[in-house]
Amino acid sequence: MQAQAGESKPAENKLWGGRFTGGLDPLMEAYNESLSYDREFYAQDIDGSIAWARANKDVGILTEKEFKEIERGFSAVRKEWDTKTFQIKPGVDEDIHTANERRLGEIIGQTVAGKLHTGRSRNDQIATDLRLWVREKLREIEDKLTALLQTIVSRAEAEIDFLMPGYTHLQRAQPVRWSHWLLSYGFFFAADFKRLRNVIQDLNICPLGAGALSGNVFGVNRESIGRELGFDGLCWNSMNAVSDRDFLLETMSWGSRFMGHVSRIAMDLCIYSSQESGFVKLADAYSTGSSLMPQKKVKKPYLPASSQTLAIRIILPFADPPPFCVSLSQNPDALELLRGKSGQMHGLLAGFTATLNSLPSCYNKDMQEGTPSIISTIHLLSTSTQILTGVLSTLTVNPANMLNALEPAMLATELADYLVKKGVPFRETHHISGRVVALAETRGKGMDELEVGELKGVDGRFGDDVRACFDQEAAVERRTVKGGTARENVREQIEVLKRLLEAKEMPAWSV
Predict the structure, then answer these.
(1) Model-level pTM?
(2) 302 by DSSP, 3-state: which?
(3) Cα dist from 345 to 38, 130, 371, whole Å
(4) Which of 178, 149, 208, 181 is nearest to 393 (CA)?
(5) Distance between CA 124 and CA 220 in Å, rounded?
(6) CB atoms within 10 A of CB 169
(7) What phi and psi, each to the nearest 5 degrees, are found at residue 168?
């Protein structure tokens, strides 16, 4: 039978329990607790508490001996968390702050431990823990994003010879280099990389010392506290310091945009790995078969007709390629999950945005709901970045299938450009090129199979040299503008991303 509120008094170690005479409904106790997830911050909570103890020592609240005892006690508490031997007391340890302080008191005695919280509130304590933890985790994600960009750059550099269709509206449009496609996402992720650094910079300010909302009466040096914890500055208004969770929203917003890019490259690769395209094949580590259809993931040797049709497997940068084989079919599970996780990320952002909407000033318990949301966000972003890096680094590319997918009609723009160089206005050349496409369709042949005479019949300004327009490689190489798909321009893009990775900045105009 459910216990009634008031049957027992609050536990003595409740940081708020002094004026309360009745106990919590057990359901409310469970509803209220946050230790099940904010235990993630145990190290940050200890670091903040040591910095706070040092500040209190500097203003005479603690003696040097008492401070050393607190340091010693927290060293033991940290070791218990690190080794997973920390004993949580259900119904007593409400959150990470309560748990750490309770255990500290057991180790060094309540007389000294009881002085730790002087002048501090859980309001500025959790705000500090969150900033420290998110900063650490975002720096780890920055490293993982660097690895993703390095993988893209490595593949783009190694596979620059491969040509493929470029698509608009999911329709084959113009020939491009496979490397150019890879780098298109490389620059999406490069922009994410720069934005991530801004998010880390913006959140790195110290709220500790703000108290519950109005500050501290003991004259602690907030600047010294902030420097000890690695912050770049202070939260300048104490009411703002305890109520600000915009840095969580900014992190989730960054994650939402990043996962949007992840979902787009995942979608492209789903299409490219289908039997209809056959441009790429996922490694076994990132795909599965069907529980019903046995043809999924059945392998057979692939014997190329010539060296030009050899599908090249490149595993960057880890190992020599194994013997090549292809699957009749496969489920691109990793790609589909990446696509699905992006929706989850958008939901986390929308949910916490709604939680913060219309809150009154200063701290409100609603803000606690940001903790599981940010933990889920960080986990999702970290694992997704690693999965995408794994997919891209072990992908098998089939350049023969890519080349075979290049249709002559994709060179219609080349005909238009050819006439422009002869002085014909582009709008007119566009119509002329369209008539050539229609003629080829009517006669049931590719544009490249039309005789020069047939082309001249459409427009007399076509010369004998027009057949040079039907070379896919040449069409790619004519795109020599900066950012284009010609070989040298792709190499320049690779150098730009290398510069970003080496110097943490991207050149604006030239390499």
Answers:
(1) 0.87
(2) coil
(3) 20, 19, 15
(4) 149
(5) 14
(6) 6
(7) -130, 140
Separation between Cα atoms, residue 328 and residue 275, nearest integer Å: 8
Distance from C-alpha of 249 to C-alpha of 239, rounded to nearest angstrom: 18
- The strand order across the sheet containing 312-313 reads 280-281, 396-397, 312-313
Question: Which residue bears the tokens 């933990």?
Answer: 375
Phi-psi region of 278 (alpha: psi -120 to 50; beta: other; left: phi over 0): left
Name the token pair of 103: 């255990």
Q: How far apart are CA 116 and CA 124, in angstroms?
A: 14
- DSSP states of 3-65: PPTTSSPPPTT-TTGGG--SPPPHHHHHHH--HHHHGGGHHHHHHHHHHHHHHHHHTTSS-HH
What is the maximum alpha-carbon separation in the chain? 101
Mean pLDDT, each 10-residue run in order, the chain (511 residues):
44 52 79 95 98 98 98 98 97 95 98 97 98 98 97 98 97 97 98 96 98 97 98 98 98 98 98 96 84 51 36 36 48 96 98 97 96 98 98 97 95 93 93 94 92 93 94 96 97 96 75 63
Q: Rounded to an integer, what distance in angstroms lies between the CA atom of residue 76 and that of residue 10? A: 27
| Residue 284 burial (CB count, 10 A) | 13
pLDDT of residue 24: 72
**The tokens of 433 are what?**
């090129």
User: Which of 169, 306, 307, 510 is the catalytic position?
Assistant: 169
- Give the whole-angstrom CA distance, residue 260 versus residue 338: 10
* 290 flagged as catalytic: yes
Dihedral angle over CA of 408, 175, 397, 255, nearest 10: -140
Q: Within 10 A of 205 (CB to CB), how many other CB atoms are there?
A: 17
Confidence at residue 308, expressed as pLDDT on a 0 to 100 scale: 35
- pLDDT at residue 13, rounded to an integer: 52
* Residue 433 designated active-site: no
Q: Which residue has the tokens 């994709």?
A: 410
Q: At what angle do helices 412-420 and 426-442 cross, to 10 degrees?
A: 140
Q: Count other C-beta atoms under 10 Å from residue 35's C-beta.
A: 18
Catalytic residue among 36, 214, 290, 361: 290
CB 379 within 8 A of CB 141: no
Q: Spell out where 169-309 has E strands.
A: 171-177, 205-206, 233-234, 280-281, 299-301
Contact 70, 53 (CB under 8 A): yes
pLDDT of the residue at 508: 74
Contact 191, 203 (CB under 8 A): no
Identify any residues that bridge with 176 across adjacent strands, giving them in sequence order: 164
Neighbours of 481 (CB within 10 A): 9
Q: Dihedral sign, CA of 151, 154, 155, 156?
A: positive
Token reading at 105: 């008191």
